[in-house]
Design a protein that fits this description.
The complex is a heterodimer.
Chain A: H1 2-12, E1 17-21, E2 24-27, H2 28-46, E3 56-60, H3 65-76, E4 80-84, H4 90-100, E5 104-107, H5 112-118, E6 127-130, E7 147-150, H6 151-154, E8 170-176, E9 184-189, H7 190-204, E10 211-213, H8 222-232, E11 236-238, H9 249-254, E12 259-262, H10 264-272, E13 286-289, H11 296-305, E14 310-315, E15 325-328, H12 331-335, E16 346-347, E17 352-356, E18 368-374, H13 386-392, E19 406-416, E20 420-426, E21 430-433, E22 436-439, H14 440-451, E23 456-461, E24 471-477, H15 483-493, E25 502-506, H16 519-528
Parallel strand pairs in A: 1-11, 3-4, 3-5, 5-6, 6-7, 10-11, 12-13, 13-14, 24-25
Antiparallel strand pairs in A: 1-2, 8-9, 14-15, 15-16, 17-18, 18-19, 19-20, 21-22, 23-24
Chain B: H1 7-24, H2 46-60, E1 62-64, H3 77-82, E2 84-86
Antiparallel strand pairs in B: 1-2
Helix pairs in contact in B: 1-2
The chains are: A alpha/beta, B mainly alpha.
Chain lengths: 533, 88
């Protein structure tokens, strides 16, 4: 069980720091005790209910101490945790609540307003746990059929012993952008995450002296790496204040952090702010990047900034648990400018990566195709979506084995004999912005409502370069209407990374030979007029 | 490229560009005091700020100095504006 990684360290390093957050340091012992009490609260509540939803626990939290205590508490209780990002629009959060069937949600102090906005008119009875509040907020009295559990209730409870679960039980349930306009859930089991953490421990050998960054929101699965690789080693997790996440250079220097993990866009932002110079991050010994393509230019800048660190480019969809392949960037390849985008390398030991053609047959070495992933890290399917699961979680032709899961990524790759796997692009319209996975059809569905116009197209910008896409540009057919209104509507439905930043109105809409939107022509229009994009 | 002659003009331009960005995001400028912590508004993010910085640098012959801002304690409007200086 994933919990065992933490419990082993809590037993061995009880007085050592486990977590630095909100300007406070929390030891393994304190974290374990507080998680145990939250677990009791969850178990007492969950035991009154029946069905799979009773085994889920939502976390409406920012990166606060309550967030991490909540993750551990949910796992101690034998529940699957479901992150709910309080910065996401209420409509989006409700969508996740409904899709998951959540009945219990832990809320931290910084997310009370999001909780208040979530409840009115929500039909299913929820139990909200407020570990930071002595008593329910005033608005709770008008919240009808929902229940509230506060700190004064939790403090009277004994800390629970961690539940004995099974490896195939869900550890966390994450929702990603869905092409139909509805987020889709991916349930990751304890077995899936254990396989990942074992691979990381073998690969990087972290020690109790290490100090890890924690830059990802809990709704991003890369946060699971931060927490559990760190805690498995008895190391300390450092969570910078929200304002420092955009450029955490000073935070890393102040705390002498040794492990770095971010999306490449974080480095791109630091570079654009001129916040990474040669030798500025000497304490780092391991630097990992994941979530989007890592350009060689950014890797080179990082090499200069963190001269004592190895650099690895990790790759993996949520469905294959955080990351499943890695490539260690050698100095000489950067010097030789061997590639514009760093390769994604080879699968972790015991995992499989097969490149297949359009018919699902493995291609010959050196030929491009869709990347299909197999092994103990691959999830069993989408949450309550058997049809999509059957489509996406199917093995390459001729490689069916009843005991192995496979997932078709939609990523277009080539298996290069020299460098391993290299990412060439997507086979569909999914893009990544600051690591967020975005189905452009989802943006378009909301944009249609906002603009009251059927003909719309969302495109990433920039595109077709080694530089990561930074935002979405929206094209709308017809005469210009107020941009502010359209963006405001999008903000009510979409997380910030999905909200278009720029909008173009076109009197003449480009169509291809099949009479469909010619996305290539729209992309060319952006490229040709990028100053006005 | 427009060259700004004094500190007041620079402050005014930075504020104006920032407010334009906020207006697109649906934030009324009347709510924006000097002590407003920009990233905590929830309407702009790091990418917006970088865009504003580049727009000011590219069009007004001035330079953003990252050492003048303290991201950890929260970036205020006043702090953001004062982190620019006219190129000498």
């Amino acid at each position: 069980m994933l919990t065992n990684f933490f419990l082993d360290s809590a037993a061995r390093y009880s007085t050592r720091p486990a977590l630095w957050v909100d300007n406070c340091c929390i030891t393994y012992q304190t974290l374990a005790e507080q998680a145990g009490r939250i677990a009791t609260a969850i178990s007492v509540i969950a035991s009154r209910r029946e069905g799979p939803a009773a085994r889920l626990c939502g976390l409406l939290v920012n990166r606060s101490s309550t967030a991490y205590i909540g993750v551990l508490g949910a796992l101690y209780a034998g529940a699957t945790y479901v992150p709910l990002n309080p910065r996401f629009p209420t409509a989006r959060l409700r969508c996740v609540l409904e899709a998951s069937g959540l009945e219990t949600v832990i809320v931290d102090r910084t997310s009370m307003a999001a909780a208040e906005a979530l409840l009115p008119g929500y039909p299913q009875p929820l139990t909200l746990i407020f570990p930071d509040e002595l008593q329910p907020p005033d608005w709770a009295s008008t919240a009808g059929h929902h229940r509230f559990v506060c700190r004064r209730d939790i403090d009277t409870l004994d800390a629970a012993q961690p539940a004995l679960g099974a490896g195939q039980d869900g550890a966390y349930l994450l929702f990603t952008s869905g092409s139909t306009g509805t987020p889709k859930g991916v349930l990751i089991s304890h077995n899936n995450v254990e396989a990942y953490v074992d691979a990381m421990l073998g690969r990087y050998a972290p020690t109790p002296e290490d100090r890890f960054t924690q830059l990802f929101d809990l709704s991003f699965d890369l946060s699971v790496h931060d927490m559990f690789v760190c805690w498995s080693a008895g190391a300390c997790l450092f969570c910078p204040p929200a304002s420092a996440v955009m450029s955490p250079r000073d935070f890393v220097r102040k705390h002498d952090l040794t492990f770095w993990f971010s999306v490449p866009s974080t480095v791109a932002t630091m570079a654009r702010l001129r916040m990474i110079g040669p030798g500025e991050l000497p304490s780092l010994r391991v630097s990992l990047f994941c979530g989007e393509a890592l350009s060689s230019d950014l890797a080179r800048k990082w090499r200069y900034a963190a001269p004592n660190s190895i650099i690895e480019n990790l790759y993996g969809p949520t469905e294959a648990t955080i990351a499943i392949t890695a490539y260690r960037v050698p100095d000489d390849a950067l010097a030789a400018k061997a590639w514009p985008v760093v390769p994604i390398g080879l699968p972790f030991p015991g995992q499989q990566a097969v490149v297949i053609d359009a018919d699902g047959k493995p291609v010959r070495n050196g030929e491009a195709g869709e990347l299909c992933l197999g092994g103990s890290q691959v999830a069993s399917g989408y949450w309550r979506a058997p049809q999509t699961t059957a489509e996406q979680f199917s093995p390459p032709l001729g490689l069916y084995r009843g005991d192995q899961q496979w997932y078709r990524t939609g990523d277009h790759v080539i298996n290069d004999p020299l460098w391993g796997l290299r990412f060439l692009g997507r086979l569909d319209r999914q893009v990544k912005i600051r690591g967020y996975r975005i189905e452009l059809q989802e943006v378009e569905a909301v944009a249609r409502e906002a603009a009251a116009e059927e003909t719309v197209a969302a495109l990433p910008w920039p595109s077709g370069t080694a530089e990561p896409a930074r935002y979405i540009v929206l094209f709308i057919a017809g005469e210009p209407t107020p941009v502010e209104t359209i963006i405001a509507h999008c903000r009510t439905k979409l997380p910030a990374a999905l909200v278009p930043r720029k909008i173009h109105f076109l009197a003449s809409w480009p169509l291809n030979a099949n009479g469909k939107t010619d996305y290539g022509a729209l992309q060319q229009r952006l490229t040709g007029n990028h100053d006005n994009a | 490229m427009t060259t700004l002659n004094d500190r007041d003009a620079l402050d005014s331009i930075v504020r104006q560009i920032l407010l334009q960005r906020l207006a697109v995001s649906g934030h009324p400028d009347s709510d924006l005091a000097q002590g407003t912590r920009l990233l905590e508004l929830g309407l702009i993010d790091s990418e917006d700020l970088v865009e504003v910085i580049l727009e000011v640098e590219e069009n007004y012959n001035c330079e953003f100095d990252p050492t003048k801002i303290d991201l950890e304690s929260g970036l205020t409007l006043a702090g953001f504006v004062s982190s620019f200086s006219v190129r000498g």
